[in-house]
């Protein structure tokens, strides 16, 4: 059994249309240990989001292999991908992706509903995860439009973690937030990484958010440029 929870081997991704071919990833290989906090850093258009989409089974590589939790998931069909994502992977996006007509609690419960968790247990687990995030349990009956951007992102983090995933993928989670709120969000992700042992892979181009990572992987033009190990 490998000590790595994520192994990406020579990942390439080419997007094709009738007139144009765009190479997003040109051959990226990386390994992530269980419990690590990794930052994928690079300018806009470097391939950060494409890489996270592949690692999260939201898209398939044109070439290469992806192994998660010792399973080669590269050629999973859509049904298998969906089941695997629900079991192992939580997502946090820059745009929050909350359902506006549902309350905070209902938004967090949604992931559990998709996994077939009974109603009584959904409520219990959703409240349990919200109680771990300072100030969120008392907002459980609010709608997203009654919350600040930082509060909405905290709800998105709770929703991502309610299924007890082994991996949290965060794509520019502070992009729509002011610097103070953004820092609080990444501090929260780091705390959950340390306390719950969740492996975190976070894409960002914000240098202030990189200090929380165990390792920073810099990518540019679809290739790994360098790696920096910190917090040892």
Q: Strand-and-helix sequence, N→C?
A: EEEHEEHEHHHEHEEE
Shape, principal axes of CA atoms: globular
Helix content bin: 25-40%
Strand % is 25-35%
| Side-by-side strand order of the widest sheet | 6-7-8-3-9-10
Which homologous superfamily in CATH is the superfamily? P-loop containing nucleotide triphosphate hydrolases
Tell me what the CATH architecture is.
3-Layer(aba) Sandwich
E-strand count? 10
Based on secondary structure, the structural category is alpha/beta
Question: How many structural domains can be distinguished in the coordinates?
Answer: 1
On the 0 to 100 scale, the average pLDDT is 93
**Number of alpha- plus pi-helical segments:** 6
- Alpha-carbon Rg, integer: 17 Å
Which stretches are low in confidence, meaning pLDDT under 50 for 5 or more residues running?
A: none
Major sheet, described briefly?
6 strands, mixed
At the fold tier of CATH, the topology name is: Rossmann fold
Query: What is the terminal-to-terminal distance?
Result: 24 Å
CATH structural class: Alpha Beta
GO molecular function: ATP binding; ATP hydrolysis activity; transmembrane transporter activity
Keywords: ATP-binding, Nucleotide-binding, Transport
Protein name: Peptide ABC transporter ATP-binding protein
InterPro entries: AAA+_ATPase, ABC_transporter-like_ATP-bd, ABC_transporter-like_CS, MacB-like_ATP-bd, P-loop_NTPase
